[in-house]
Structures are given as structure tokens and as C-alpha cells.
Amino acid sequence: MNNLPNILFSKFTRVNETVTPEALQPNELTQLENMRLDEEIGVASTRKGFARYHEQANTSGVVNNIYDVIDENGDNYLLSAVGTKLRKNALGGAGWVDVKTGLTEAKLRMAVYGTKFYFTNYEEVPFYTDLTDTYDMEIERPDVTDI
């Protein structure tokens, strides 16, 4: 815990980067770095840092993506696309578990719908997972011969 004082701005409104400094109101800032803002009470304080959950990422591949997700039971997981694998770890858990292997090393894009996590990297078959089971999403080309 640091002993640096908080800075109080009376009725703090925002960080305003769109105007010249001469046009700023007394309760606006032009720049704020490494700070956390509580806009309700107008307090700016330093960030509190981070917590380490694991000694290592347990990988020799490149980490292309990392996501913080919550499953249908409300459990928090980290998902990480590492090399050719998508891996999961219960937050604070002991180790990483493969969700899907055999991927290319292209960066994944994720979308959440309900309790499912959908992934694509535009190079292979899209897939989804509920963190227990993983399924490929085969998309068939429509038959347009009779149109």
C-alpha cells in the first residue's frame, strides 16, 4: 500500500483531450497517467498494481490472446491462445488445461453468446466451447443450383 495522497477535484467531470488547455474547466484534466479515477466523488489515485496467479504461463509458444471469462457456474477462468492451443485455467488454479489443440498460430477472435465462447481466426473452421466440451462449427455452402 502506498502512502501517496489522493488528489481531490471538486465535482470532477472527465479527462478532456479535445480542447485547448485555456478552455478547460477547473474540474477537467488534459492528461492522466497511471491513475484510477472515481468519477462519482472526484478522486484520482494511483493504480494498485496486479496479483500474480501463476509462477509461469507453462508454455514455450507465443501467447497470442488472453481472455478473462466466467462460465455458466459463475467460475472465473483465464483462456489463453498459446502457440497452436487454446488453454484454460481456473483463476488461482494450479495448472493450464488444453481446451483445443491443432490450431494455427493466427490470433483468435472471441465472441460470447449465452454460456458459450465462440472463436475464429479466419484461417480454419470456427469453433465454440463451454469450457468442458469443444465443437467445430461446420458451415455448409448453400445449394444455389436451382435458383
Task: Explain briefly what this protein structure is.
With 147 residues, this protein is mainly beta. The chain has no helices and 13 strands. The protein has a 4-stranded antiparallel sheet with strand order 6-7-8-9, with no helix packed on it. It has a 4-stranded antiparallel sheet with strand order 10-11-12-13, with no helix packed on it. The chain has a 3-stranded antiparallel sheet with strand order 1-5-4, with no helix packed on it.
Would you write up a description of this structure?
The structure is a single chain. This protein is mainly beta and 147 residues long. It has two domains: 7-46, no CATH class; 63-136. The protein is built from no helices and 13 strands. The strands form four sheets. The protein has a four-stranded antiparallel sheet, with no helix packed on it. The protein has a four-stranded antiparallel sheet with strand order 10-11-12-13, with no helix packed on it. Strand 12 and strand 13 (134-136) form a beta hairpin. It is elongated. The chain starts with 6 loop residues before the first strand and ends in an 11-residue tail after the last strand. The mean pLDDT is 77.
Measured between the Cα atoms of the first and last residue, the distance is 70 Å
- Give the topology string: H per helix, E per strand: EEEEEEEEEEEEE
DSSP strand content: 35-45%
Work out the helicity level: under 10%
Structural class given helices, strands, pairing? mainly beta
Number of helices: 0
* Low-confidence sequence ranges: none
Gyration radius (Cα, Å) is: 23 Å
Total strands: 13
Summarize model confidence as the mean pLDDT: 77
Which term fits the overall shape? elongated
